[in-house]
Structure formats: structure tokens, C-alpha cells
Amino acid sequence: MTNVEIAKIFSEIADILEIKEENPFKVRAYRRVTQLLESLPQEIEEIYKKGELHKLPGVGESIAEKIKEIIETGKLKYHQKIKEDIPPGLLEMLRIPDMGPKTVALIYKKLGISTLKELEKAAQERRLRDIYGLGPKTEENILKGMKLVKERKERIPLHEALVLAEDIIKKLQDAGVVERIAYCGSVRRRKECIGDVDILATSPHPARVMEIFTSLPRVEEVLAKGSTKSSILVGGGRQVDIRVVERESFGAALHYFTGSKAHNIRVRELGVRKGLKINEYGVFVKKGEEEERIGGREEEDIFQSVGLPYIPPELREDWGEIEAAQRGELPRLVEIKEIKGDLHIHTRWSDGANTVREVAIAARERGYEYIGISDHSQSLKVAGGVSKDSFFQRIQEIRAVDAEIPEIKVLAGTEVDILPDGSLDYPDELLKELDIVIASVHSNFKQEEESMTRRIMKAMENPFVDIIGHPTGRLLGEREAYEINMEKLLRHAAQTGTAMEINAYPDRMDLKDTHVRMAKDMGVKLVIGTDAHHLLQLDWIKYGVWVARRGWLESKDVLNTLNFPDFFTLLKKRS
Ligand code: DGT
Ligand code: CA
Ligand code: CA
Ligand code: ZN
């Protein structure tokens, strides 16, 4: 069983306990282990075999026992047992945005509704508004949400697709049947949502590759099995395609199957103008009746043949990259290794899993020069926001860790709530004690566009606010962005000198690529932060860097590629 599959079991337990209104601390413990598993870079099974489960943060005796049982038996008795306590449809209902366990339990109790279908019908027939506490707005949101749930079945967030692609590639490599192998398609272009996963390989034994691929343990259905091409469905209806090509075609096929289709068509047209034929097999010139191959082993051959420099996959959308390449004006895209610090990290002071010290040490290991500890503010009770009472205690601890670890600057920050009226959840007297302030919306998501835009603009006007966190609040496949006028917001960010965050958390990727590019064009300061709640999630910075790259950013466009003094000077509005 993969980490993600095990994580799903724990997440479901948390959901069930919540519907049953059991102890919130118990629920939190299961949520934490879910997060841990989703972000773990190694297989939990390997850690278990080494007898090192207890070394994982947040894994106590009882969770370790459960992980052990799942690995050894493929299931968990406790999970099976509590699943019987509620109708299975309730869990599906939870997948609708804004449908919390309380609402689900309420609707079930009052109307006996226990499936998505019944829920949709009741919302259409306007029967939910009869329940005290619900109204026409709830019905509208449920109907909108059903649409998202259906869409999500068709597109997967990048993170999920990438983990899947990497796992399959590793299994084929371990089996020793492939030479070169890579994922392509929208995964390689780092699009935020993926239709299907495309894998490309070369191999002396294509038939063996097809055999292993179609009999991987996670296969639920084999859609097609050919001699060099196969498609499978894996858990949750996700499709994965594989193709084995000749060595001399690998580069051409990699380019072709990376896409996008629009980009491919442009490149092929350039080829035609030079008398070349470009396809997934290679680059060819006509020599009388014959065709001669002049390239295709490497992807660079394709670009070279049409007189272009190499265009990174993230840019291949026909959003102007061909023209920029022709003018010699391709951006030199920011790279993961250029990031010098992460400003959005949660610790145990709010809803994170690790201590400040643990996080600082992990950041030092990544080679960072600085980090910002940005726990939630007081009003965010669900996320253990830091009260006024422990405000100074937390700063003290951060200062102590900072002094203890000279290689890394540990900044005392916060992710302060932007309240519905645009005021902040801490007064200025407290904010001024902090080195770095991220302001984010975590409540009242449903405001009208105008008031939501004004709400965030007002936060930008506070001289202590350095960064706006996850500016649109979307959760991929779960919650739409708030209604917001992005152009107005970005203009105000530029005017007030407030930085906008590219939140790298894989469910967020917020700002998104098109907004990032807009921000760059408007001269807005940008930072990339992980929103890590576990030290392993520091690694998720890559998702933010990929969004930045899709938004054409260079290192000079991203503040946290600067060394600490320059970063800090440029970030601060107050001098
Ligand atoms: P997805 O799967 O919807 O997230 O997006 P992609 O880009 O992965 O698209 P997919 O899986 O349909 O095809 C993979 C790549 O193959 C695509 O990016 C470009 C290439 N491709 C597919 N169909 C065509 C086509 O009709 N013409 C050209 N030039 N390229 C194509
Ligand atoms: Ca694809
Ligand atoms: Ca495909
Ligand atoms: Zn947040």
C-alpha cells in the first residue's frame, strides 16, 4: 500500500469521528498523521521495516500500531468498525466544499439524507432551507459544490498525479526493463490540474514493459494493452498512458507528448517553413523521394532544428514563448535551488506538527538562509491560533532558536487573519513586535466581489503587513477562489508595496500561473512560501516554484531568492 492510500484511511477515520462529534483532539491526531503520510518522501513501509515508525513526529504508540496493522494486513479493523457507524454516503457528502461534518450530520438527522443524489435533489427542491441554520444560500452552495465534485473526478491536482507518475516510473526502473524513462504531458508542464498521466520510455524489451505496467498492484482496469503502448486505470479512476519508443526518437516523442498541443502545432509550423517534417518520431528533411532523419534523440534537437533556444516545459502553452524565443527574450526561469528562505511555516504554536527548533534545523539542512515562523492568529480557533497571552512567549522561543542556530535567520512572523471588515486579528502594538507579517483570509469566504476586494486592499494598507497569503483562498477541487477583482488587488499591492504570496501548498498553488504573470507585469513584489504544517512539507516549495515558472518569473522577480539583508530591506514597507 502506498503512503497516500494509507493516508486516505486515516483521513476517513478523522471524518467519521468528526461526524460523530467525538473528541476534537483525537480528530486532530488523525489529521496530523494524514498530513505526515501525504508529505513523506519515503515509503512508510520502508520506515516500518526498519523499525523506525516511532521516530516520525506525531506518531505515538496507538497510531504506530495502526500503521503496522495496515501494512501487514492491508486494512484496519478499527476503520472497518467505525465505518459501520454512519451511512457511507455521508463521507461523500463531505467532499462538497463547505459541507462540514456538522452540517452533514444535521441534514442526515433532520431529513434522513444519506447520499449525494438525495442531497442534490433536496437542494434542487429547496427543502434544506427548512432546517434551522441552513438557508437558500446553503442550497446554492451545495449545487455549485456538486459540480466541483464531479469535475474533480476528471482532473487530479498536480501533486497527486506527480506522486503517481514517480511511483510507476520507480517500479519500472527497479524492474530493470527501461533505459530512459520520463513523465511528459501536463505533469511535466507542471499544470495545477492534470487530466491523465503520460509516461514515455525506451527499452530493449517493450513487451516486458507492457506486462509489468499493466499488472502493477494499483491497476484497477487495463484499458488497452499493445506491444509498445498501454493505458490503465488506477485507484479513483485515474488514467495512466505509457509508450515505448525507439532510442533515436526519444527526444522527439518527449517533446511531442509534453505538449501542449498548441505549442506543438506552432513548432511544427516553424519546421514546415524550413522544409522540415517534425513529429513524434523525429525531425526529417526530404531528400528526393527519401526522408532523412536529422534529429530526434534529444529534445534539444527539435528546438535547434527550427532555430530556437531550448524552451522549458512550463512555458510551452503558446502564451508567447515562441515569439520570446525568436527575439532571444525567453525569461531565465527561477529555479528551486535559488530559493533562500521560506516565510510561511506553521509550528506547534498553532496547527503545525513540529517545534520551531525542529523546523529551523530542517531548513538549515535544506541550505536556507532564513525562515519565517508564521503561526495563525488568535481568532482562528480551529487552527489553534496564538492568543495574546502566548504571543510573547512564542517570540521568545523563536529568538532563542535563532540565537542557537547561527547559520539561519529565524524570523518571528505570523499569519494574521484578515477579519471580514478588513481589519486585522492583532492590533498594531502586537504586529510591530514581529519581524514579518503575512495577512490572510480564513473566514467569511462568501463576501461579494467588491467587499472582498476592499477587505484585502484594506489589509494591504496596514504598514505592518508585508505579504498577502494565499490571495484567492482556493483549494484545488474543493473550494473556489473568493470573488475578487484581481487586477484591482494587484494594482493596490504595487501601490502599497505589499508582496503577494505564491502559496506552494499543493492544494492551493495560489496565486495561480496567470495571476503570477499579471503581477509580474504590474511590478508587484512576489514571495514563494510553502504554508508547511510539517517539516517534510518544506519540500513542497517546488510547487510554488513551478507556478512561478509558469508565470514566467525569473529569480529577480521573487524576493526570497535574495540574500537575507536584501530580502528584508526590499520586503519591508516601513523602514
Ligand atoms: P491533460 O492530460 O488533459 O492534463 O493534458 P496533456 O497536455 O497531458 O494532454 P494529453 O494527455 O491529451 O496529451 C499529451 C500530449 O500529447 C499533449 O500535451 C500534446 C500531445 N498531443 C496530444 N494530441 C495531440 C494532437 O492532436 N496534436 C499534437 N500536435 N499534439 C498532441
Ligand atoms: Ca496528460
Ligand atoms: Ca494522455
Ligand atoms: Zn492560511
CATH superfamily of the largest domain: Metal-dependent hydrolases
Mean pLDDT: 93
Largest sheet features:
7 strands, parallel
Q: Do you know the CATH architecture of the largest domain?
A: Alpha-Beta Barrel
Net shape:
globular
Q: Which parts are unreliable, with pLDDT below 50 for 5 consecutive residues or more? A: none
Placed side by side, the strands forming the largest sheet appear as 11-12-13-14-15-16-17
Characterise this structure:
The structure is a single chain. With 575 residues, the protein is an alpha/beta fold. It has 4 domains: 3-152, DNA polymerase beta, N-terminal domain-like (DNA polymerase, domain 1), CATH 1.10.150.110; 156-244, 2-Layer Sandwich (Beta Polymerase, domain 2), CATH 3.30.460; 249-326, DNA polymerase, thumb domain (Beta Polymerase, domain 3, 2-Layer Sandwich); 336-572, Metal-dependent hydrolases (TIM Barrel, Alpha-Beta Barrel). The strands form 4 sheets. It has a 7-stranded parallel sheet. Strands 2-4-7-6-5 form a 5-stranded mixed sheet, sandwiched between helices. A 3-stranded antiparallel sheet has the order 8-9-10. Helix 1 packs antiparallel against helix 2 and helix 8 (116-124) crosses helix 9 (136-154). The N and C termini lie far apart (53 Å). The model has no long low-confidence stretch (mean pLDDT 93). It binds 2'-deoxyguanosine-5'-triphosphate, calcium ion (CA) (2 copies) and zinc ion.
Short summary:
This protein is of the alpha/beta class and 575 residues long. The chain has 24 helices and 17 strands.
